[in-house]
Specification:
The complex is a heterodimer of chains A (674) and B (318). Chain A is mainly alpha-helical. Chain A contains 31 helices and 4 strands. Chain A has a domain of 234 residues: MetI-like fold. Helices cover 80% and strands 2% of the residues of chain A. A two-stranded antiparallel ribbon of chain A has the order 1-2. The longest helix of chain A is centred in the middle third of the chain and has 40 residues. Chain B has 2 domains: 152 residues, D-Maltodextrin-Binding Protein, domain 2 (3-Layer(aba) Sandwich), CATH 3.40.190; 119 residues, D-Maltodextrin-Binding Protein, domain 2, CATH 3.40.190. With 318 residues, chain B is an alpha/beta fold. In chain B, helix 2 crosses helix 12. Chain B is globular and about 65 Å long. Helix content of chain B is 41%, strand content 19%. The chains are: A mainly alpha (674), B alpha/beta (318). The interface between A and B is large, with 70 and 61 residues.
């Protein structure tokens, strides 16, 4: 057996050897830059000329070519062509969507034989509000009912009802699809270890490839309109459901499963009668995630034909009506809050009222449904007589639009110079030098450092993974744009983490402040980033700084949340012990709390990186020159290959960071003995 | 949730029965399939689309409006998911349009009569600091006035999104302009900066196009560059700079409607009406102002115009 201190020495030596070697090579490359141009400047996109492959001369052309072939008439998915198949799927999604949309928003128009049209109005807003409020009250309490009531009244009062119902309709179609597929894949993953291993990288990609990158292929496959929007939403919102299903099923106690077997259940019965019901609380967390992520997609979905609130946000920003944009954005937040609270309440209730405790009262169930139906029909019918029931009168609509416009204008006129001075300082002293430094780094050195980091933190498997992902970026000719991405994202993450940790630490000490912070970050997370993108541009001009501010705002919530969580979850006894041994508050914080919470904080940083990367694609709309812009250009030019290659590069940066940070956090946790 | 589910099922069942009972008919138009007109995200286009849509409705066609991206919509037009796009600008959409027409799946539905202008633009108050404007040769003398701390001693010109093309980087170089060209990511970001500068009466030089509400809201002028010709873009020896192309202003040009090719056979009269449709910049600007600056809705504005000008548009439908 090797003595413990010998391992320590060996490890320290290999650590020194690795990093020292990397630095040495870096310096050599640096000095010899003039001779080894190839090692410094990233090569152009790798291309080849093989007759047999036709026009497929580089990765992105191959992707585009493949897509064309799939959608041409040669690719068969027995017995249809691929395109016929995807269009059939689209039709299946389209039908329920059109139905729900007509029900909630537009009403039905049925042509009668003689050229007249029989129109049935949409469900009355009053009816829908009353039923939802009663539902909230029944599954939770009066407080939730009040929240629902106020939110609905806001939607109606601010004239957002019509758009809100369109948005709601697409959510009501996307969420069930996401849940069904998520659970199905989750069950497969639970049953077959191989399948789980195969699907995990796919899920990683689904979550990290920017949505803009797969919008174009989705458009090609499912046609223009709400169906494509719904499909893109499902792709983005489903992965957490799969992960959580697998996790939840695995965490069902062994005894329960055994009991199912002893009771003579077959495999199907065990899954559906035993495992799924027992895993319900976990699954409901997944449902909640799917709902929230679907709402995140509302704006992007409206770019390809979803309409609704997202479209209102885009249209009002287009005419610089910041106030109107904020109102439509807040409406999305309100829907998110209502759906979030309702689904959470439902999840909790689902466990509290176990069937065995309260005997089912079928009469009760039907009575409530009947009441709901009566209310809906009565209020909708009343709309024929009293217009108020079918539509909130326009004269009573409130608007705060002008207030927001004036506020931004006031800040702009009175504080622009101060903001400008601050911006110029940061830009010249931090942003520019970092950008120049990163762009001048030889690619060979970057790959080497990645390899050493991978080796040190997680062994050779990790090293091979990160290096090959980075190589993909290199050979597809995205290196420079990738470095700009790393620069913008990196600086934003540093700022977001610093601010987030500070706020998190303060929040952990003051309960009132904590409440304020939590409400603010909840809002910040569901408010579409487009809404604050424009005021940021007005105050900071088009450029990297504006992009950075927007990314920091968006990436802040996880940094705060995880810091708070980490510090609050430190065992009480450890804090007490530190206090009794005479730590000052500062010592307690720096020597005990932050150190013990470090693994959680690192996870927070990890999440911050993920958020920042997903936001970078949106800041391309302000005018950055990174991979986000590449994806955006590909979107507007409908270039499948270019978009997917750039999108994958973004995803690979995310995966490299994620794997390295997770490995570091794991090591740290092990070192702390947690 | 069970309450909810049962309720939904019941409502669905009820509605389905209603559907089944209703017989389908009515046929003044050649086909009752809806004509899908795309809707982008600028007011002028809403107005054109709504106007054409309402005119087609008056002829008995079913019309649907589908929000779609300006360039991405061509995919839909070629496959028949979308049917008509009412505003393709020569200045920004020419390449995409030509590529699409070349596939044979779309047809040119003619010019709308509007005239697209795109050029470097400055607010009128900048003339005090730079009296030589609008002549482009004055730009270099005022480079510092148009500069920001990041660009000084160069001036700063805010161009459109890279996807709009426009050759501004080339233009600045060919004309020897001492300016840094910064690209806004989107239309919205571009006008946000103009709005911000205008509020403060601060210097700004940016890409503005017409018809657009900006020309009505802000007082300003376009820079006078050497007039565009085809040779200027193709032939380096043309113009003031003998070695480089793009030493002139931007092209001004048509705004066209485009449609799905098979629609020609399906709704011939509708396509003809769209070809007949014509509207000029002045009228369009006045309608845009009513919507964006006076706060009326697009439907109101279009409805009002159609009511008062039946004599103008009725002949288009014949």
């Amino acid at each position: 057996m090797i003595p413990a201190h010998a391992i320590g020495v060996y490890r320290r030596n290999s650590w020194l050897l690795g990093w020292g070697g990397a630095f040495a090579v870096a310096i050599v490359v640096w000095l010899g830059a003039d001779w080894w141009q190839w090692a410094v400047k990233a090569p152009k996109e790798l291309s080849w000329h093989v007759e047999a492959l036709g026009s497929c001369t580089s990765v992105r052309y191959c992707v585009t070519g493949f897509m064309k072939w799939m959608l041409g008439n040669e690719a068969y998915l027995f017995p249809w062509t691929f395109k016929e198949f995807t269009r059939a799927v689209a039709a299946c999604i389209e039908m329920p969507y059109q139905f729900i949309r007509a029900l909630l928003s537009t009403g039905f128009e049925i042509p009668l034989g003689n050229g007249e049209i029989w129109s049935i109005p949409a469900v009355s807003w009053i009816g829908l509000t009353i039923v939802t409020v009663l539902f909230a009250w029944r599954i939770k309490d009066g407080m939730l009912a009040v929240i629902v009531l106020l939110s609905f009244l806001c939607l109606v009062g601010f004239g957002q009802w019509e758009s809100a119902t369109v948005t709601l309709a697409s959510i009501m179609v996307a969420v069930p699809i996401g849940i069904v597929f998520g659970v199905a894949l989750g069950i497969l993953g639970y049953r077959h270890k191989r399948f789980e291993q195969a699907i995990m990288p796919v899920l990683d990609l689904m979550q990290t490839v920017p949505i803009f990158a797969y919008l174009v292929p989705v458009l090609f496959m499912f046609g223009f309109g709400p169906v494509s929007a719904i499909t893109a939403t499902v792709i983005y919102a489903m992965p957490p459901m799969v992960r959580i299903t697998i996790l939840a099923l695995h965490s069902v106690p062994f005894e329960i499963k055994e009991f199912g077997k002893m009771a003579g259940c077959n495999r199907r019965q065990i899954t559906w009668r035993v495992l799924i019901p027992s895993a319900k609380p976990g699954l409901m967390v997944g449902v909640n995630q799917v709902i929230m992520l679907s709402l995140n997609m509302v704006i992007i979905a409206s770019m390809i034909g979803a309409g609704g609130l997202g479209f209102d946000v885009l249209a009002s920003l287009r005419r610089q009506a910041i106030g109107d944009g904020i109102e439509a954005g807040v409406a999305i937040t309100l829907i998110a809050i209502v759906l979030d609270r309702l689904s959470q309440a439902w999840a909790v209730r689902g466990t509290a009222h176990h069937p065995s405790e309260t005997p089912r009262n079928w009469f009760n169930q039907y009575r409530n449904t009947a009441y709901a139906l009566v209310i809906l029909l009565a209020t909708t019918a009343a709309g024929f007589v009293v217009p108020f029931f079918s539509q909130w009168p326009e004269t009573l609509e409130l608007t705060t639009g002008q207030f927001w416009n004036d506020l931004v204008k006031w800040i702009n006129i009175n504080f622009f110079d101060q903001l400008e001075a601050f911006k110029v300082f940061i830009l010249l002293n931090i942003l520019k030098p970092v950008k120049l430094f990163l762009l001048s780094l030889p690619w060979v050195v970057v790959l080497l450092f990645l390899a050493v980091a991978g080796l040190q933190l997680g062994g050779w498997r990790l090293a091979v993974l990160v290096v090959s992902l980075a190589l993909f970026i290199l050979i597809t000719g995205q290196w420079e744009k990738a470095m700009i991405t790393v620069y913008l994202c990196g600086i934003s993450v540093v700022f977001a983490s610093l601010i987030g940790m500070t706020v998190g630490v303060f929040a952990s000490r003051n309960p009132v402040f904590k409440k304020i912070v939590i409400v603010s970050i909840d809002t910040l997370q569901t408010l579409p980033s487009f809404v604050y993108l424009l005021p940021v541009v007005m105050l900071f001009r088009v450029g990297d700084f504006s992009a950075m501010v927007a990314v920091v705002l968006y990436a802040l919530p996880p940094a705060i949340r995880y810091t708070l969580y980490g510090i609050e979850n430190i065992h009480e006894s450890l804090v007490e012990a530190a206090k009794t041994s005479g730590c000052t508050r500062w010592q307690l914080l720096s020597k005990v709390q932050i150190r013990l919470a470090w693994p959680e904080i690192m996870l927070g940083v990890n999440q911050t990186v993920m958020f920042a990367l997903s936001m970078l694609v949106i800041t391309a709309l302000v005018g950055t020159r990174d991979l986000g812009q590449e994806v955006y250009i590909a979107l507007t030019k409908a270039d499948v290959g270019r978009g997917l290659v750039a999108g994958l590069s973004v995803a690979f940066i995310a995966i490299i960071t994620d794997r390295l940070i997770s490995a570091a956090a794991r090591r740290r946790k092990a070192a702390l003995g947690l | 949730m069970r309450t909810n589910k049962t309720f939904r099922a019941l409502v669905a069942a009820a509605a389905v029965t209603l559907f089944v009972q209703a017989p389908a008919a009515f046929a003044q138009a050649e086909s009752e399939d809806p004509i899908k007109i795309t809707w982008h995200d600028w007011t002028g286009q809403f107005i054109t689309a709504t106007m054409i849509g309402e005119i087609l409705k008056s002829m008995g066609y079913n019309v649907e409006f589908v929000p779609a991206d300006y360039i991405a919509q061509f995919v839909g037009l070629e496959s028949g998911d979308l049917h008509v796009a009412v505003e393709i600008w020569e200045t920004t959409g020419k390449d995409a349009l030509e590529a699409s027409l070349a596939t044979g799946n779309t047809v040119d539905l003619g010019e709308t009569g509007m005239h697209a202008i795109e050029e470097w633009w400055y607010p009128l108050y900048m003339k005090e600091q730079c009296p030589g404007l609008p002549d482009w040769t004055a730009l270099n003398d005022c480079a510092e006035a148009f500069g920001t701390p990041e660009t000084l001693p160069k001036g700063r010109y805010l161009g459109g999104p890279v996807t709009w093309g426009g050759y501004d980087d080339e233009r600045a170089e060919a004309l020897g302009l001492n300016y840094e060209v910064v690209h806004a990511g989107t239309d919205a970001a571009l006008f946000a900066e103009i709005e911000s500068a205008y509020q403060r009466q601060a210097p700004i030089l940016a890409w503005v196009y017409a018809p657009h509400w900006a020309t009505a809201k802000y007082e300003g002028e376009w820079v006078d560059f050497p007039v565009y010709t085809d040779e200027c873009y193709k032939d380096p020896s043309w113009g003031g700079n003998a070695d480089m192309a793009y030493d002139c202003g931007k092209p001004r040009g048509w705004i066209k409607a485009v449609g799905w090719a098979e629609g020609e056979a399906k709704w011939p009269k509708a396509y003809q009406a769209i070809r007949n449709f014509t509207i000029d910049n002045e009228l369009m600007s006045s309608l845009i102002v009513k919507v964006d600056l006076e706060g009326m809705s697009v439907e109101e504005v279009v409805g009002e115009w159609l009511r008062d000008n039946e004599a103008v548009w009725k002949p288009w439908t014949q």
